[in-house]
Predict the structure of Methyltransferase domain-containing protein.
Amino acid sequence: MGTWTENYLLAAGLEKGMNVLDLGSGMGDVTLLAAEIVGPSGSVTGIDRDPVVLQKAKERVQAQGHSAPVTFLHSEILNFRPKSQFDAIIGRYVLLYQPDPSRVLSHAAAFLRRGGILCFHELSFGTPASSYPATSLFGDTVKLIGEVIRRSGINPDFGLFLAKTFADAGFSRPTIKADVPVGGEAGSYIYGWATETVKTLLPVIETLGLGTAHDLQIETLAQRMEEEAVVNHSELVGPLQVGAWLRT
Ligand SMILES: C[S@@+](CC[C@H](N)C(=O)[O-])C[C@H]1O[C@@H](n2cnc3c(N)ncnc32)[C@H](O)[C@@H]1O
């Protein structure tokens, strides 16, 4: 999904020399994308509340290098109080997990300089992902992911509520653009994406009684999904990716 994130950041106006804050930086993928854009005269700070993932992000960034000064800080977004302001505040797949996303947005925006950029990339699972002609493995896998999201109390349509989230946080309507992952060919990334997502969610899937690694035959899932799609000449459609941005 990196190309879309990068497109949203560039369209939002991210450029060389900016100081950027990445909310919910996870393994640092978006932090690194932003570092490429802002270059050595800029800087990127990633914050995350999960110390394990943060440590992995630090190691990863040290190992592969980066084009701008990058700092990772352990913090819950609502407890984060930096000493200086940022030129841009960005995030991917983070607002949808917040019980009150507009509160998080307005909290973070207090650290944004006047005229600074807010840019978020979220997704919508609500429109059921599908395959044409239908394939059962991909369809069932994406239905399972959607069900876990719904049962965890997360709005599966969140990506389509970004205009409302910005409005509730007191901002004008952002520019919104959406993209859709489509796969189905041999070697498509979509099988790995769906399978890795299920693997990440396995502890929750098992707790909710929706299946086990054994039921799902997780180790061969991607390969079986690919075989089914290729043989049926199917187009597999993933969740809607939504970018929203504005300058304050
Ligand atoms: C789905 S991951 C996305 C990671 C990264 N942005 C990416 O797209 O690769 C969401 C991350 O946000 C972090 N997160 C969620 N809510 C947070 C909060 N309120 N404060 C700090 N971190 C948060 C989680 O710990 C997790 O690492």
